[in-house]
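Notebook entry, structure prediction.
Reason for the run: the old model in the group folder had no record of what sequence produced it. Starting over properly, with the input documented here first.
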Amino acid sequence: MYKRDNLSKETEGIIISPDELKSEAEIFNGRTTDEFRVKGFAPAWTPEFLLYNAFITGSEFSETIDGSLIWNETKLIDSIDFSRDWTENINSGFQEEEDFTITYCYDPGYKLLNAGRIGFYYTTLRDFFTIPAEDRASLDFKWLGSEKSIPVSEDIIYVGIPEKSGKQKAAREFIMWLLDGETQKTLLDSSQFKRSRGFGICGGLSSVHIVNELVMPEYYKLLIGNVPPIEYFDFPDNLPSYWMSARADVIIPWLEDQSSIEPEMGTLTGILKTWTLQEQKK
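New structure, fully documented this time:
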């Protein structure tokens, strides 16, 4: 997300790539004066950015037939090199970036944007629309991705019917009701009436794309013209059942470490193996 006057006219469309964001951040860095220090963006501000940049770069995390986690090591390292280069060459080095972060970045991202202290901040669509309306009034967003491709978060909510369920017919009827556009409009109406701070359908966009295109913009005005075509969404490959735990406990901390001034952790393969053994003992 960003304050509307922070984006140059060179970056058009609803998607912004990591390379474009890097260029925009460098331009914003030029606003620094002796009286007011600013930073366009730092990958380390939001660890989730490090992971999604890895997805966009082509790290291709997926599950093998035996349930193991695999990835493209070369592309993963490329994503880390990208973040390190950003810190070293765009943000004037690790020490300068850390000093700025400690000194100024104690408020939520949207407050730093509105104060003009930073240029851009990574967030989810859900969190963006839970920012108080008065604080969001001057803000806008673009989807982080590459050309016509936007990685979808792995915490997708699915609905299904257990194979041995004794209520198959009723379950199918419920799912058909839930996925009906009019039903989802009613749910959104109810959410607005109750002043719920939740976003969208179950915290995100709907699996019914016409709801995203025609209904949700009625409630979230910034979605007008900002809903990507359905073919742009890049859904994650099959991932192991332990993915979300490994993501939080191992992968993101490892990416943070590798993107720091002096990485201390070993290889991701080794760290993940140690973590898996520890989890098995619980």
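Summary: The chain has a mean pLDDT of 91.
The old model has been moved to the deprecated folder.
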